[in-house]
Structure formats: structure tokens, C-alpha cells
Amino acid sequence: MKTEKIGDASFETWSVDEVATAFDANEVVLIDVRTPQEYMFEHIEGALLMPMAFFNGDKLPGQSDKRIVFHCGSGVRSERVARAAIAAGVTQIAHLDGGFAAWKSAKKPYIGTNMATGAPQATTPE
């Protein structure tokens, strides 16, 4: 994990394996900041959706029980949202380095769309 100090805040960039381990252990809340359309097509199972276009850092919950980790498609939008959260007064926030593309490249499981039926389906890459 890479950590950058921004004033009193800590901005962390987590690897896919770090996020996957913490998420599986229920230590983090994973928030997807992509569009609803991107999320519906494919997403990490259990990740919450908070599109960047509607992001309001003042409305984020505290992190006393679980840390917040943002992710997007490539890591660009999630970094912007994490920095906006810091600007809103959050003192510790993280994002997934490389985003959902890195998650898929690391062959982590996700929910995709069955192109034959349009229904969601669990995908475990080999």
C-alpha cells in the first residue's frame, strides 16, 4: 500500500490483493464510483455504488468499523473521488490501484452479464 499525506489526511493506494484480502475479511467497504450502466454490466460482488457524478464527500459514513476503499474502471475516477473526500474533511481514505481492470487482470471474481440472457452471473476467471 502506498500512502500519501495530504495535510492531516492519509490518502492510500491499495493493490488488488490488499483490497481482496481486506474485503474478504469484511474489513473494508468497497465503493464503486463508475456509472450505473458500468456497474450493471459488471461489478465486484458486494461493492456499493456511488457514481462520481453524484459524489458528496460530506455524506460519507464514518470509518470506525470499516475503512472505505473506492474503485472505478482504471483508478483515475476513484483517485479523484478519494481526493474530494479528503477535501470534504475525511482524514483517511483509500482507492484501488488500477481499478476494476486490474481486478479482472488479477483474475478476481466478479459479477458479469450473461450475454445470451442479459442476466447477471458470477464470473470466476481462470
From TrEMBL:
Residues 24-112 form the Rhodanese domain. It comes from the Bacteria. Pfam families: Rhodanese. PROSITE patterns: RHODANESE_3. This is Rhodanese-like domain-containing protein.
